[in-house]
């Protein structure tokens, strides 16, 4: 008589018991972010007690880390994508003036590696605590045959809120307003597919461990700077701001235009700031045209702020690192003019 195979799923590459252990670890790690607002964890849905607003508008965002994950996995710095995904999502809803309430994640791997998952969630927990956001749930998927064993994907979902009268929709932006730029912490989470090709990282990861004097660190250390979060910098001065643009995929043209009404355009002066050395290194190593660099990368500006003239002076006084990088003009065929 044949015995039923009670380990068939494990032999196909999915390990249910290990997944259950990882979920318990995630619940323990994220506990500090939930406090009294997150109600329950690990059920079919995650609950959150919503309070403190009179006329709230909920603002949500979903995004992924992209192929920066490849660099993090090669160097076993998996906490960085955890920080990246929270900060990226929080920055997105900040552009509408929203305060983050809660965050959920999706982590998919070819083979669940508890240490990797703990590092990723540890980074998320750290980033959520920094902005007072509750990590209330998510999904961990083991997908053998779809992802290579050494690779994984990380996606994040954030929900925030803003009082309706404080919503930043860009509609008050007018010709004569000032465009300010806040520095990025390197590449953030964009352009890594091009960087991997330029340095041939997929075929030989050794350049990641090479020291570059112009960077003052190894290439890997530079590429794994965490995506900067601008919430703490801007939350107390949102009333001075008419528009915000998070400079991610699509760089200046693709993101600033999203925050502008149809009646205006933004003129950006590229000579108003000096891009960090990593961008010069990528451009020279890859023989990349200047226009392409500004189309792909943030070039050292991670968040763009639009204010009236008087308000801009106040913002710069409170944020000395802010640089005046342009101005708002009457609408043109091109919504963003880079000079």
What does this molecule look like?
The protein folds into two domains: 14-166, PurM-like, N-terminal domain (60s Ribosomal Protein L30, Chain: A, 2-Layer Sandwich), CATH 3.30.1330; 178-338, PurM-like C-terminal domain (Phosphoribosyl-aminoimidazole Synthetase, Chain A, domain 2), CATH 3.90.650. It contains twelve helices and 14 strands. The protein has helices spanning 8-11, 16-34, 68-74, 79-94, 114-131, 192-198, 219-223, 231-234, 251-256, 277-286, 290-296, 309-318; strands at 38-39, 47-48, 56-64, 99-109, 134-142, 152-163, 178-183, 211-212, 217-218, 243-246, 264-268, 301-307, 323-330, 336-338. α5 (114-131) links the parallel β4 and β5 (134-142). α2 (16-34) runs parallel beside α5. The longest helix is centred in the N-terminal third of the chain and has 19 residues, at 16-34. The mean pLDDT is 90.
């Amino acid at each position: 008589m044949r015995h039923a195979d009670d380990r068939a799923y494990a032999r196909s590459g999915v390990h249910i018991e290990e997944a259950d252990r990882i979920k318990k670890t995630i619940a323990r790690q994220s506990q500090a972010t939930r406090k009294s607002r997150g109600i329950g964890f690990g059920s079919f849905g995650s609950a959150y007690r919503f309070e403190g607003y009179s006329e709230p508008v909920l603002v949500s965002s979903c995004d992924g880390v992209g192929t920066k994950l490849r660099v993090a996995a090669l160097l076993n710095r998996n906490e960085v994508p955890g920080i990246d995904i929270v900060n990226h999502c929080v920055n997105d809803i900040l552009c509408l003036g929203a305060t983050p309430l809660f965050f959920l994640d999706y982590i998919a791997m070819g083979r669940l590696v508890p240490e990797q998952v703990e590092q990723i969630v540890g980074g998320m927990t750290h980033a959520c605590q920094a902005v007072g956001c509750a990590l209330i749930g998510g999904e961990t998927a083991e997908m053998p045959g779809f992802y290579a064993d050494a690779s994984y994907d990380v996606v994040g979902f954030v929900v925030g809120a803003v009082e309706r009268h404080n919503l930043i929709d860009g509609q008050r932006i007018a010709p004569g307003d000032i465009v300010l730029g806040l520095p990025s912490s390197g590449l953030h989470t964009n352009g890594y597919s091009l960087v991997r090709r330029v340095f041939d990282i997929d075929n030989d990861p050794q350049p990641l461990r090479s020291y570059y004097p112009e960077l003052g660190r190894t290439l890997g250390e530079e590429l794994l700077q965490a995506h900067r979060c601008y919430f703490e910098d801007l939350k107390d001065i949102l009333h001075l701001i008419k528009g915000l643009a998070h400079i991610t995929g699509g760089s200046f043209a693709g993101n600033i235009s999203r925050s502008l009404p149809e009646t205006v355009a933004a003129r950006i002066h590229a000579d108003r700031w000096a891009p960090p050395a990593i961008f010069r290194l990528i451009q020279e190593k890859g023989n990349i045209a200047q226009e392409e660099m500004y189309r792909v990368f943030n070039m050292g500006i991670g968040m763009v702020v639009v204010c009236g003239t008087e308000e801009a002076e106040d913002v710069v006084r409170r944020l000395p690192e802010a640089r005046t990088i342009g101005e708002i003009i009457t609408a043109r065929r091109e919504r963003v003019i880079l000079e």
